[in-house]
Amino acid sequence: MKLIRRPSPHFNARKAPIDMIVIHAMEHPDIDEACACLDGYRVSAHFLIARDGSVVRCVDEDKRAWHAGVSSWRGVSEDLNSHSIGIEFLCDSFSRKRRVNFTKKQVAVGVRLCRRLMRDYGIPAVNIVRHSDIAPERKSDPGRYFPWRMFLGSLTR
Fold first, then answer.
1. Would the pTM count as exceeding 0.85?
2. 72-99: per-residue pLDDT in tens?
């Protein structure tokens, strides 16, 4: 998998070992727009996956990207950013009102990336989560049209 480098200035040092992956979705089908949007809000993710399957690395894995916000998972309620790698899937919408079609290529690349991260960091499948799982009151991404069951099932085969 080829990685395109688009470094974000929005990161700092990790304070915990990597033990989870957080899946997000962004309503920007274009990589340039997505990167500009993240910079404008002073947030970041480690990777962006475009609809054509391109993968953009914004923050190196050994750094703490700013993507999870106030959140908790399995007893950890502080600084999930330090514990996790954030992956943004780009789309035109993840609204509950409008159907979103994440592409097969995009999802397949996401599965390959997650498998590599799981192997490299010993991340268990139970710690592959959606943003909506760790911040259900605040976030709805990646949304109900993201093929979550298929995605997660592909990681555990």
1. yes
2. 999 999 999 999 999 999 987 655 566 6
Q: Of residues 33, 78, 88, 137, which has the active-site annotation?
A: 88
61 is catalytic: no
**Residues 70, 142, 66, 79, CA torsion sign:** positive
CA distance 95 to 19: 29
Residue type, 111: V
The pLDDT tens digits for 83-140 are 999 999 998 765 556 667 799 999 999 999 999 999 999 999 999 999 999 999 999 9
Cis peptide before 136 (omega within 30 of 0): no
Q: Where are the domains of the chain?
A: 3-156
Query: Which class would CATH give 3-156?
Result: alpha beta
